[in-house]
Amino acid sequence: MAIKVQIPSALRRHTAGVSSITCTASNLEQLFSVLDEKFPDLKPHLRDDKGQIRRFLNIYVNEEDIRFLGGAEYAFREGDEVLLVPSIAGGAQ
Amino acid sequence: MSHYQLRCRECGRTWGNQPRSICDECFSPLEVTYDYDGLKASLQRGSNGNGPFSREAISRRPPNMWRYAELLPLPQNFESRLPVGFTPLISAPQLAERLGAQPRNLYVKNDAVCLPTLSFKDRVVAVALVQARVFGFDTVSCSSTGNLANAVAAHAAREGLKAWIFIPSDLEPAKILGTNVYGAKVVRIAGNYDQVNRLCSQIADEHRWGFVNVNLRPYYAEGSKTVGFEIAEQLGWRLPDNVVCPMAGGSLITKIKKAFDELIKLGLVEAKEVKFFGAQATGCSPISTAVKTGSSEIEPQKPATIARSLAIGNPADGHYAIKAIKSSGGWSEDVTDPELVDAIRLLAEAEGIFTETAGGVTVGCAAKLYRQDRILPEETTVLCITGNGLKTTDALEGVYQSEQPIAPKLAEFETYLQQSLDVAEVPEIVAAEQATGIGA
After folding, report:
1. Residue A39's domain is classified under what CATH number?
2. Which domain holds residue B415?
3. pTM: predicted TM-score of the whole model, two decimal places
4. How far is CA B297 from CA B12, B22, B317, in A?
């Protein structure tokens, strides 16, 4: 499936300034593999030491939070637009 | 050199002071951290141009949130233009009786009368706009469920800044009007708050605006600490046993905890374990659901509640709110819409405080926590009322019947009075029997 992925500005220094790419992936796992391969510097910023997607990274498909669509199980459809958006939290010590 | 700076909550990298909320290294949130050793050393001799920072010195400062300037991210020699905060902490004996608490042990922190826009959001915006000035923004912005919209619009007007406000289109009319009136540009989005918030983080990527809850968020969130500082000072420089706090994004409860921790760290109050209790509406309860099920992560929800100021299905600080509640030995509850309406009326009738829907959630959840013995009658407990009921009058629509007018004649009034007394004197159980025809 050809899908379009938007890269937020916070991560663009790891993508040589690239703000969006079109790639082929049928699910989230495949999409992250594509991103890992295309932008090796990006990988540690998207996943933690255990390879899990970082807690504060939200993923939207056509404006819907992917967790409402089945999360990792969601099968991308042709033309899907994927947004990587930082979850904006304040935190407290 | 500033006495505060941004630090990544997870990896610890420091970022100085700049308009950013995300760590580029690990994508985690940034937080303002202070030079506590320096502050401690200067408790008596003073720092920041404000003189000593002792209990006595603070108590002599003007009655507003700026009296805690040393523990806020404010530039040297900052001078406030707006007296925000220092709202009343009210003893609530009648409410205590209704909830099953001892009369002298229940308090209401009443931010329904916070100035200038009648919610605790005035505190966070006041701090955020100081930083907006420092960073040279001429336009400030936010995504909002209403109270924040009001606060950003009003403070921006006062500061001579342009304001662009993004809101879900179904917001209460009073909250929209209360934003329009300050001359702000209001953009209604056909979506819920989580969608508005996501859009704003994309806009912040493209436009050089000061989004108080996006790129200014670490500074903004610090303003919430002043609720905690005030509670401690107003209790006579001591901490309560319990705090019950409404939760939307989950930031406030974590910041009250941070405030207490800082006061302990600086020796301004005696160390004490305070339990934190979170309150949500059942129709949007991702944090209380996580607490109840023992999860440390948020499962996002689609909000369905009249408590629109709490209707955040994917709370940004949810993870930290869960942590604050659990680590303190507290709990989280939620109430249905009818329960929160009853609780709004209860607080108004018992203590003369008219709160918005979020306050109904807090009082309703407190009632449950007393019934569950999670809060004990003899413990000192503070309920955080964060907004004013005049902004959400639609929540009470249909609760009170509009009566037929009577003629301006004494005889008419005497008849009316007699009828009213007759109705009032019918015991509830008899009235119910009459209504159903039983016993007729």
Report:
1. 3.10.20.30
2. 404-440
3. 0.92
4. 21, 19, 11
